[in-house]
Design goal:
With 376 residues, this protein is an alpha/beta fold. The chain is built from eleven helices and 14 strands. A five-stranded parallel β-sheet has the order 3-2-1-4-5, with helices on both faces.
Length: 376
């Protein structure tokens, strides 16, 4: 049987767990994180489930299962130790079109619950179509070692960045993940700063602080970098491209306080244009941080549909690739109102050229389309 893997929204939906033992308890714990309305049906329940009932996190129906219990349920999990009851639960749910999972009985399930690794909003699921839960568990444990809590923070950061920059730049996001992610995770924490995200580091070197400086030569120390109040920072030699592995290895050493890359810091791109300091709009949209990621490209053409563009403007004359005019009594190469030229400058003025203003997407080209005359 082939299953369709999904992430299911259970928030405020009625979910039933039938059974009160340890297996039912695990199912309830996983459901609690979804915001579902959870009811447990069983004559007896575990101590932990009783605590959830006392804390009003779940509802307990203290009796055996009855077919009318599933009315209006969105999802049902059968976790009793009675095969006949579990089969009845599956039959009742199927008759009413309710999603049902029966523990250890994949043949009568509508869905299976995979082994999962949760790191904040990041969920990694491992399923074997019910054939080998033990194998799924083993793989889950392997994955837990590869993807630590820092990936949860990373997921949140990328989500925020995606909301700010938009989701349509597929190639940009693929390049970001492929080329920058290891550097982002090297020290095992997330630093919420675009300038650090796009920093470089010296290949083949790691900075380390030891608890005790005795016998540090065995670590391959190159030199002392600088002294701090409670110790010294040393530079270690490692194989290029293996910095992450070296840092992870050092973290396990009880004599190591911390280890991190030997970062090369870069300041934000600050243009030298004459009027840049007075362009408050660029400050409002945090353009300097954005330019660390993208300055536009000549492959992108911005059409300025306005009063035309001054072809002789120092910040625009090299940017205009073509024009159309729908105003018969004025040449397209003149902007007798000034508004179109102003808009073009905001969009893509030549930037960091020591004159004029800075444009938002300064590497893009401009197409002048004149639809308004000098009166606007």
């Amino acid at each position: 049987m082939n299953y369709y893997p999904i992430e299911l929204n259970l928030e405020k939906k009625k979910c039933l767990v039938i059974g009160g033992g340890k297996v039912a308890e695990r199912k309830v714990v996983s459901l609690l994180a979804t915001g579902a309305f959870i009811s447990v049906i069983s004559p007896k329940i575990t101590k932990r489930l009783k605590e959830y009932v006392a804390g009003r996190k779940i509802k307990h129906i203290e009796r055996e299962y009855s077919s009318f219990d599933i009315k209006d349920a969105f999802l049902v999990i059968g976790a009793t130790d009675d095969k006949k009851t579990n089969t009845q639960i599956a039959t009742d749910c199927r008759d009413l079109g309710i999603l049902v999972n029966i523990v250890d009985s994949p043949v009568i399930c509508d869905f299976l619950v995979p082994a999962t690794v949760k790191r904040g909003a990041l969920t990694i699921s491992i399923g074997t179509s019910g054939k080998s839960p033990a194998l799924a568990k083993k793989i889950r444990k392997d994955i837990e070692k590869l993807y630590g809590p820092e990936y949860g923070k990373l997921t949140e950061f990328l989500g925020d960045l995606r909301r700010k920059l938009g989701s349509k730049k597929r190639l940009f996001w693929e390049k970001l993940i492929k080329e920058k992610i290891e550097r982002f995770l090297l020290i095992g924490i997330i630093i919420f700063s675009p300038s650090l995200l796009f920093s470089d580091f010296v290949p083949g070197e790691v900075l380390v602080k030891f608890r005790q400086d005795k016998q540090i030569k065995e670590y391959g120390v190159l030199s002392k970098v600088f002294e701090v109040d409670n110790g010294k920072i040393y530079k270690l030699k490692t194989e290029e491209g293996k910095e992450l592995e070296k840092i992870n290895e050092l973290k396990k050493d009880l004599n190591v306080v911390y280890a991190e890359p030997n970062y090369i810091r870069h300041i934000y791109a600050i243009p030298n244009d004459t009027y840049f300091s007075s362009q408050w709009g660029l400050k409002m949209i945090e353009a300097e941080a954005g330019w660390e990621i993208e300055k536009g490209t000549e492959a992108v053409i911005i059409a300025i549909t306005d009063t035309g563009i001054d072809y002789n403007h120092e910040d625009l004359k090299e940017k205009i690739i073509g024009s159309w005019s729908f105003v018969s009594d004025e040449p397209v190469s003149l902007d007798m109102n000034g508004h179109g030229t102003h808009v073009a400058g905001i969009a893509a003025a030549s930037t960091d050229n020591g004159t004029g203003t800075a444009g938002v997407a300064w590497n893009c080209k401009i197409l002048a389309i004149k639809v308004l005359n000098k009166n606007g």
